[in-house]
Specification:
The complex is a heterodimer of chains A (about 280) and B (about 375). The radius of gyration of chain A is 24 Å and the shape is globular. Chain A folds into 2 domains: about 5-60, no CATH class; about 70-275, Orthogonal Bundle (MetI-like fold). Chain A has helices at about 10-40, 45, 60-70, 75-105, 110-120, 125-140, 145-170, 175-180, 185-195, 200-215, 220-225, 230-240, 245-275. Chain A has about 280 residues and is mainly alpha-helical. Chain A starts with 10 loop residues before the first helix and ends in a 6-residue tail after the last helix. Helices cover about 75% and strands about 0% of the residues of chain A. Residues about 280-283 of chain A have low confidence and may be disordered. Helix content of chain B is about 20%, strand content about 35%. Chain B has a 6-stranded mixed sheet, sandwiched between helices. Chain B has a 5-stranded antiparallel sheet with strand order 13-12-11-14-20. A 5-stranded antiparallel sheet of chain B has the order 15-19-16-17-18, with no helix packed on it. In chain B, helix 2 (about 90-100) crosses helix 3 (about 105-120) and helix 2 runs parallel beside helix 4. The longest helix of chain B has 18 residues, at about 165-185. The chains are: A mainly alpha (about 280), B alpha+beta (about 375). At the A-B interface, helix 8 and helix 9 of A face strand 6 and helix 2 of B.
């Protein structure tokens, strides 16, 4: 059997392996633990410089309430949702359409179009920063939800098209021939045959896109300015500006910001894993 | 009444000429089987009739209507695929009603059509199941049921039994023939399995390299192949072919000498051969006789291998300098099929014989030279 079960290994190697696991886990989790514990500390404790130790008092309710009452985080949350949800829907709809067409129809320029979708992913965001901002200013979308929604949909659709094209291309060709022979139009085939079969891919893509758009900081600060539009990631930075030393509240807000993608992942985990592996093991 | 007409059908894939001037007329209610080796164009031809492939040139008519440029759904056809191509997320009933649903037919009509097809195919118990809960044979029946619900003018089958195991294949073969008798619809069936072709077809179409080699009733094709390709393709084990040369022509008879000195006299070849012409002699394995002193042509050989099939025996005989060409086994031995079981020892010497009236003679270009043999009328 390969790899050999750990229990069969020499004790020394087993010990070394276990120690490495613990060490790496600790390195990985300590900053996260620090943020979590700091989100429970009192303001005085943070001022006294206790960042890493065990909290002297637990201020869970006070701190987390303060995030909503003393800062504009609630507004930022709403902004993030208003930006993220339409972006995810837009990306899923567009990439399903492009993926279906690019995987199932042969036409002049199909490869070039596909190459553009894929190649766009390789453009560094920094290159596009100024042109995209200028574009949004000149079409009057700068500092609106639409600026972020339009940009994220456009930018994410490239990768999503690659993903969906490959997924739909892996579906058996005879299914499409059968549907066509039975008189189903391309739209009917998409609606009744393709969509039900690509649900795992849609779930996986929904999580990836949601996480990316929700966590995006770069474009949030490039394309928005006012609190009324700013998403949570840019909003967190504002907290630091206003509350120079209120690290306990910043930490609490950070935890809150991290929750939606994590919840999303656990909700769709089953589909997500299926979506990533379904091509490999033909079901 | 004519059901399907193919007129000068051509198909090019880039530089590849997949179908070459195919002409075929299929009558209403016929069961036509297209056979041929891999890559002969039989599946392409079927997909062309279905409309899943376009034609490069030519006209296709179904029930007198020119459908050459129509979408598959508008041609009045239904197709059954080798992999069944069932929609995995739909139940059996949903699969069978799919075509009618897409055509937005009333619900009652769909249910009636599904119930009727399920009854014919004994699938009433399976209607609420998903395809993955069914056995291979049941899945294939669902695929056929999906075709039946559309009440098409023509059924198209693309190697529908290839994915089934041998026992199930025999059973489904009988079921399909029964179904054809019940429905009386025109069916076009593609297979590479000549047993399916021989047993199910009212007519067989033999294809080779994109062209039709011969069309005819199964026994007609078996007994009177037009050319050496059809002779070699139909029949298992395969016909024995021996290269020879015409040495003497007198009147309508001719003498052919094969490598190793075997001489065979043929009759009724008026004006068909000339002295010195290279020819191929063909004799079916079941027409070769073992140790039969009454056979008019005789030669000896040694047993190379014997296959005992229970009710018959196949003996491979090495006849020394007399060699066969293009045999199944790739060796140049004769294949003999006898209708009983007798023990043969490898290396033992046997006598082979045949009657020239049972043999075929083919010209260098493949045409059959010998006159047609009598075929039992069915």
């Amino acid at each position: 059997m390969y790899p050999r079960p750990l229990a069969d290994d020499a004790p020394v190697r087993r010990f070394a392996y276990a120690s490495m696991v613990v060490l790496i886990l600790a390195l990985w989790l300590v900053p996260l633990m620090a943020v979590m514990t700091t989100s429970l500390r009192s303001f005085e404790e943070v001022m006294a410089g206790n960042y890493w130790g065990w909290p002297k008092s637990f201020n869970f309710i006070e701190n987390y309430m303060a995030v909503f009452t003393q800062t504009a985080m609630a507004r930022y949350f709403l902004n993030s949702l208003i930006v993220t949800l339409p972006s995810v829907v837009g990306v899923l709809v567009l990439s399903t359409l492009t993926g279906y067409v690019l995987s199932r129809y042969r036409f002049r320029g199909a490869n070039l179009m596909f190459a553009l979708f894929v190649g766009g992913n390789f453009l560094p965001a920094q290159i596009m920063m100024i042109p995209v901002r200028d574009l949004m200013v000149s079409i009057g979308l700068y500092d609106t939800y639409y600026a972020l929604i339009v940009f994220h949909v456009a930018f994410q659709t490239g990768f999503a098209t690659l993903f969906m094209r490959n997924f739909i291309a892996a579906l058996p060709d005879e299914l499409f021939q059968a549907a066509r022979a039975e008189g189903a139009s391309p739209w009917q085939t998409l609606r009744h045959v393709v969509l039900p079969l690509i649900r795992p891919a849609l779930a996986a893509l929904a999580i990836l896109t949601f996480t990316f758009v929700w966590n995006d900081y770069f474009w949030a600060i490039v394309l928005t300015q006012s609190d009324a539009v700013k998403p949570v990631t840019a909003g967190l930075n504002n907290l630091r500006g206003e509350w120079v030393s209120a690290w306990n509240l910043v930490a609490a807000a950070t935890i809150l910001v991290a929750i939606p993608p994590v919840v999303m992942f656990f909700l769709m985990q089953r589909h997500f894993i299926a979506g990533l592996t379904v091509g490999a093991v033909k079901g | 009444m004519t059901s399907v007409e193919l007129i000068n059908i051509e198909k090019h894939y880039g530089g590849f000429h997949a179908l070459k001037d195919v002409n075929l007329t299929i009558a209403e209610g016929e069961f036509v089987v297209m056979v041929g080796p891999s890559g002969c164009g039989k599946s392409t031809l079927l997909k062309t009739i279905a409309g899943l492939e376009t034609t490069s040139a030519g006209t296709l008519r179904i029930k007198g209507r020119d459908v050459t440029r129509l979408e598959p759904g508008d041609r009045g056809i239904a197709m059954v695929f080798q992999s069944y191509a069932l929609y995995p997320h739909m139940t059996v009933a949903e699969n069978m009603g799919f075509g009618l649903r897409m055509a937005k037919r009333p619900k009652a009509e769909i249910e009636a059509a599904v119930a009727r097809a399920a009854k014919i195919l004994r699938l009433e118990e399976q209607l609420e199941k998903k395809p993955k809960q069914l056995s291979g044979g049941q899945r294939q029946r669902v695929a056929i049921g999906r075709a039946i619900t559309r009440s098409p003018d023509v059924f198209l089958f693309d190697e529908p039994l290839s994915n089934l195991d041998a026992a199930l294949r025999t059973q489904m073969r009988v079921e399909l023939s029964t179904l054809h008798a019940e429905l009386g619809s025109t069916m076009i069936y593609v297979t590479h399995d000549q047993v399916e072709a021989m047993t199910m077809a009212s007519r067989i179409v033999v294809l080779n390299r994109g062209s039709i080699e011969q069309v005819g009733a199964p026994l007609e094709l078996y007994n009177n192949p037009d050319n050496v390709f059809v002779a070699g393709f139909l029949g298992a084990p395969r016909m024995n072919f021996v290269a020879g040369q015409v040495t003497e022509v007198s009147g309508s008879s001719a003498r052919v000498v094969c490598a190793g000195g075997l001489e065979v006299g043929f009759e009724a070849l008026v004006g068909k051969v000339s002295v010195g012409e290279a020819v191929t002699l063909g004799i079916r394995p079941e027409r070769l006789r073992l140790d039969d002193a009454a056979a008019r042509i005789r030669f000896t050989g040694s047993v190379r291998l014997t296959e005992y099939l229970g009710r018959e025996t196949i003996v491979y005989v090495d006849a020394g300098p007399l060699v066969t060409t293009g045999s199944d086994s790739g060796t140049n031995v004769f294949t003999v099929q006898i209708a009983d079981v007798r023990p043969f020892h490898n290396g033992s010497v046997v006598s082979l014989g045949f009657d020239p009236a049972d043999a075929y003679l083919f010209a260098a270009d493949g045409r059959t030279l010998t006159p047609p043999k009598a075929v039992a009328k069915i």
